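Predict fold of PmoA family protein; 277 aa.
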Amino acid sequence: MAPGGAGAAVAVWNDGAGVEPRLSPRPYLHPVRTRAGVVVTEVVPEDHRHHLGVGVAVPDVSGTSFWGGRTFTPDRGSVMLDNHGRQSSRGPVAGPGGVWVEEVSWTGPGRGELLREERRWRVRGLDGSAWVLDLECTLRNTGGRDLSIGSPATNGRPGAGYGGLFWRAPIGPSAPRVLGPEGVRGEEGLHGSRAGWLALEGDAGGPWTLLFHQPGGHTDPWFVRAREYPGVGPALAWEERLPLPAGGELTRCLRTAVVDGHPGDLDALAAAVVALP
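Predicted 3D structure, encoded as tokens:
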């Protein structure tokens, strides 16, 4: 994938078919690079082997894990269960305006298809040192029964409401800086917030900045990690399970500016990103 459908590729799509079953196989983008070639994603890292670049991962769909790894349970804590699902895709199809569309089937262990997803990737240039990726997913309940989306937080682990669109960034010599609007800084200030945007500034492989925004009217709480590992994503089930009735659907979008270096004026960058149609 390249900005505007031309020029050097800045993101590589993977079908995830060869991913270990306990990591919940799924399609993802990796490597994703800045215009200067700095890699800003990580895949199967030693700290969390179920983290796969940029994609959609949900830890609990009525008991099935599409996140991978261990499942947090109210009585036993985090344990490895035989509950891992799989996302399968034949690959994205290029369309006009730098949009790629793929259909993804979410199947549970021995239960057939639970969800059918339309995933849309849009790649655009921003300026000479930055480009923008829109990742939009529409999940439809095709399993014939009511479902709900949960997280470790909804099972009793405070602050662990992760799950949904997720970006795993690489580990550098130091933890990335977490920045937000109105001078808000740090993981503590932005984790769980509904800030209009947030940014990671890192130095793994060279200086880079990732600025995240949720277009489309949804402002889910931000799940942010920096010290333990660098990762960001809007949380679908921060404190309460999210119902998805039979035949129902939901849509979410994550917009990310991928920037070389550390811009001096993040507010100006955010304004440009938010203003994109």
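The longest strand covers residues 112-127.
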